[in-house]
Design a protein that fits this description.
Blueprint lengths: L5 E9 L10 E7 L7 E2 L10 E2 L5 E7 L2 E9 L13 E6 L2 E7 L9 E4 L2 E6 L17 H20 L2
Parallel strand pairs: 1-10
Antiparallel strand pairs: 1-5, 2-3, 2-4, 2-6, 6-7, 7-8, 9-10
Pfam families: SpaA
Protein name: LPXTG cell wall anchor domain-containing protein
Keywords: Membrane, Transmembrane, Transmembrane helix
Length: 163
Amino acid sequence: KEKKLGDIEFIKVNKNDKKPLRDAVFSLQKQHPDYPDIYGAIDQNGTYQNVRTGEDGKLTFKNLSDGKYRLFENSEPAGYKPVQNKPIVAFQIVNGEVRDVTSIVPQDIPAGYEFTNDKHYITNEPIPPKREYPRTGGIGMLPFYLIGCMMMGGVLLYTRKHP
């Protein structure tokens, strides 16, 4: 009997507004069958290494054989903070069925993975724009100093001529 292969799809989105993000690069790694602590490339051909998201933000992995997998984000889209948890998610394929999709996150790091409406989302937070501080020490006060000096000089001249 032929073994079933599994498929899984992730969508890369902006964490705040859930808009799809393009140009995020990911790699999928599979657990070594003989050494459970070792994960590596799925095959020698580099399948699913450095996969880039398109306009729709989708990342689809097809024909995955049974085993445990981990998804890593190699680089985030321009203008976004990197996902801090590496790997982002782990999952398992059993008999062609996707199981146990979980985020591997220490408690102090915000997760970069969400599961909503039967969809797997990988989220990135935008880098906030740099704040502009008010300028100080500019020429703005100079006219007021000059007017003040002229007024004091005028009062001084007036009081000398009219005692």
